[in-house]
Amino acid sequence: MIYGIGIDLIEIDRIKSLLQRQPKLPERILSDDERIKFDGFSHEQRRAEFLAGRFACKEAFSKALGTGLGKRISFQDINCQNDEFGRPFIKFEGFKVHVSISHTENYATSQVILEKM
After folding, report:
1. Which active-site residues does the annotation give?
2. Residue ranges of the binding site
3. Which residue numbers belong to the known binding site for Mg(2+)?
4. Of the residues 9, 78, 101, 114, which has the fewest C-beta atoms closer than 10 A?
């Protein structure tokens, strides 16, 4: 049974700008596992795309859950990884989580569907 659906869209240039002003932004948004992957990217554009994609994913997840980010769930509580085929996934107790993340030159977007188990 579908529990919730969330979607988010963010400008990659906005993330680039935030990264320049707040170098610790990845520590606020990314889990430890996600930061390892982020730190492996050397190109500024790819780092910004990855961070924007994960930001959008976590926002979409919180919308699907119906809580938003802050009081009940934080960025750090959501760990989005990739399987062996590159498909993004989130493990969250009690739910099957369907995740899609996409990028263009200017935008990153994510859609999350939560299925109650």
Report:
1. 63, 103
2. 8, 59
3. 8, 59
4. 9
Structural contact between residues 15 and 57, judged by C-beta atoms closer than 8 angstroms? no
* 38-87 pLDDT, tens digit each: 999 999 999 999 999 999 999 999 999 998 888 789 999 999 999 999 99
CA distances from 41 to 24, 93, 107 (A): 16, 30, 18
- Cα–Cα distance between 16 and 48 in angstroms, integer? 6
DSSP letter at 92 equals B
Contact residues for 36 (Cβ-Cβ < 8 A; gap 6+): none
For residue 27, pLDDT beyond 90: yes
- Closest CA relative to residue 101, chosen from 114, 116, 88: 88
Alpha carbons 54 and 88: distance in angstroms, whole number: 10
Taking the complete model, does pTM exceed 0.70, yes or no?
yes
